[in-house]
Specification:
Low-confidence stretches: none
Number of strands: 0
Largest sheet: none
Number of helices: 16
Shape: globular
Structural class: mainly alpha
Radius of gyration: 19 Å
Length: 236
């Protein structure tokens, strides 16, 4: 491990809060059989992690990847902030390398906040002007976090008013067994609706009666109350 990686990790260890760490381990479901089983927290607020990553702008891609392999959740999140910063300032070749590194290291991007802080910025951005079929491969993975990366990455396309991939991935994930995927798909459908309500409703009218309840609730959260209730009661 590089000297700078050690320095960043040591700074994280120094500012950890055991009481906050205990709360985080409950919040992020780290118990046996839960989605974050075995994850370990230091107890550091996200704004502090972002500030630290910004301060260490001299960190290299290798530094970030070394930190990403830490057993501590906040260290991995800091590493992802470093990677996003590096990606934003990289040339085309550098962006490609970081994108490939990201996909290779998804086993360490293993909680919803880690995915949500990086998949849009790296995977979504990189694939925007490229062939995107690998997102379908990720969406069909047995690994929860690969599936979440796929759908969250499509948020970048939504922001550019491109909805096709989000809708295709949502259909693929319609019968997923994980609540974290239900929430992510519902969230992305809601974001589609924020850009084009008719596009979202066309999808919902086709699938709302078979999609998980949580997914539907997230998708229709911003609908007028009368229409929201109609969807929930199956009266559309």
């Amino acid at each position: 491990m590089s000297k700078l990686s050690d320095q960043i990790l040591n700074e994280l260890f120094e500012v950890g809060d055991p009481e906050r760490a205990s709360h985080s381990q409950r919040f992020f479901k780290t118990g046996k059989g839960e989605y974050g089983e075995g994850d370990i927290f230091l107890g550091i607020r996200v704004p502090r992690l972002r500030a630290l990553a910004k301060r260490y702008k001299q960190a290299s891609r290798q530094d970030a990847l070394e930190i990403l392999h830490s057993k501590y959740h906040e260290a991995r999140l800091t590493a992802l902030f470093l990677l996003v910063n590096l990606y934003n300032h990289a040339d085309a070749s550098g962006k490609k390398q970081i994108y490939e590194d990201y996909l290779e290291n998804i086993p360490f991007i293993n909680n919803w906040d880690l995915v949500d802080s990086s998949a849009l910025q790296i995977v979504g951005h990189y694939l925007f002007d490229k062939e995107r079929s690998h997102l379908e491969t990720l969406a069909k993975s047995e690994i929860l976090w690969e599936r979440r990366v796929a759908i969250i990455a499509s948020y970048y396309f939504i922001r550019q008013y491109e909805f096709r991939d989000t809708l295709k991935l949502s259909a693929l994930l319609l019968h997923d067994q994980e609540d974290l995927i239900h929430k992510a798909v519902g969230w992305m459908l809601r974001e589609v609706g924020n850009k084009s309500r008719p596009t979202e409703e066309e999808f919902l009218k086709k699938y709302y009666q078979v999609m998980p309840r949580t997914m539907l609730r997230y998708a229709i959260e911003k609908f007028p109350e009368e229409k929201r209730q109609a969807y929930l009661k199956g009266e559309i």
